[in-house]
């Protein structure tokens, strides 16, 4: 996919054209033992079922399944995965010290059109010998995934890249809702939204249900795609996620949309709300 010795394009330019972070090209799986990677997979599966589990509950759960683990080990693995036991919320929702947080704006709000509200979140992706992180930007009303990026770190850059792509392709939303993670309270993220005139909304601490639609996306993605594969490289993971996201947006029936795929409903309802405008469709 990427040619290191390309005569005209640098590796960075090729990564930009393919919409992947350059760090993903150089990514080598983390050096965890097979036993720890298996535990991380089990933790991830249980966290989808019970996102309120902290270190103690997760340790008890694994012990009940016959794994001889202590809290110190589970705490380290959950932090490595981006799962935070302190507030019973993903570690991706811990604000950086000194970063401003914003109130939750969606309580009681009727969301009835595309681009009224977008939401974003980060999740952990298991691989055969390591792991990556995935961020997605979703339209709240139609559940369409507007953009996504994969990274091997939890820095804010890959989130801002996904946001820029979504705004470039689909315009800007009225409200963007996220958790209180350091990526989403960072200056790079909030400044991009403020300069575009977007109102910023953030989940309450420990309230994963405030961003429930994208949490459901992660559950569906992992059971229908991630857990069925054992990717070796970042390129394999990106190709697999891209294939599933295309299927999800354009083919997969969604129960909340009357059995229609999200992309179909997004463009149909966007046309209804902009009858006099020429709308350019993008995937």
TrEMBL record:
Gene3D superfamilies found in the cross-reference section: Ribonuclease H-like superfamily/Ribonuclease H
Pfam families xref list: HTH_21, rve
Integrase catalytic domain ranges (all copies): 110-269
Gene Ontology molecular function terms on file: nucleic acid binding
PROSITE patterns attached to this UniProt entry: INTEGRASE (PS50994)
Biological process terms in GO annotation: DNA integration
PANTHER family noted in UniProt: TRANSPOSASE INSF FOR INSERTION SEQUENCE IS3B-RELATED, TRANSPOSASE INSO FOR INSERTION SEQUENCE ELEMENT IS911B-RELATED
NCBIfam families in the cross-refs: transpos_IS3 (NF033516)
Protein name as annotated: IS2 transposase TnpB
Organism (species): Roseovarius halotolerans
């Amino acid at each position: 996919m990427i040619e290191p010795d390309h005569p005209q394009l640098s590796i960075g330019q090729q990564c930009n054209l393919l919409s992947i972070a350059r760090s993903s090209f150089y990514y080598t799986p983390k050096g965890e033992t097979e036993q720890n990677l298996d535990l991380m997979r089990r933790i991830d599966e249980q966290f989808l079922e019970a996102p309120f589990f902290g270190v103690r509950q997760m340790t008890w759960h694994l012990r009940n399944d016959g794994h001889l683990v202590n809290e110190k080990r589970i705490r380290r693995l959950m932090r490595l995965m981006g799962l935070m036991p302190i507030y019973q919320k993903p570690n991706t929702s811990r604000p950086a010290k000194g970063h401003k947080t914003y109130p939750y704006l969606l309580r009681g709000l009727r969301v009835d059109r595309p681009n009224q509200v977008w939401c974003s979140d980060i999740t952990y992706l298991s691989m055969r010998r390591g792991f990556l992180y995935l961020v997605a930007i979703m339209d709240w009303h139609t559940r369409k995934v507007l953009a996504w990026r994969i990274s091997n770190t939890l820095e804010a850059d890959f989130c801002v890249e996904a946001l820029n792509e979504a705004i470039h392709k689909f315009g800007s939303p009225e409200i963007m809702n996220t958790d209180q993670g350091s990526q989403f309270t960072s200056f790079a993220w909030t400044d991009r939204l403020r300069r575009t005139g977007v109102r910023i909304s953030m989940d309450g601490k420990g309230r994963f249900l405030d961003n429930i639609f994208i949490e459901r996306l992660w559950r569906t993605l992992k059971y229908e795609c991630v857990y069925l594969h054992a990717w070796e490289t970042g390129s394999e993971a990106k190709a697999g996620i891209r294939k599933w996201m295309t299927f999800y947006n354009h083919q997969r029936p969604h129960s909340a949309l009357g059995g229609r795929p999200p992309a179909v409903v997004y463009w149909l309802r966007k046309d209804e709300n902009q009858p006099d405008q020429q709308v350019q469709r993008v995937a």
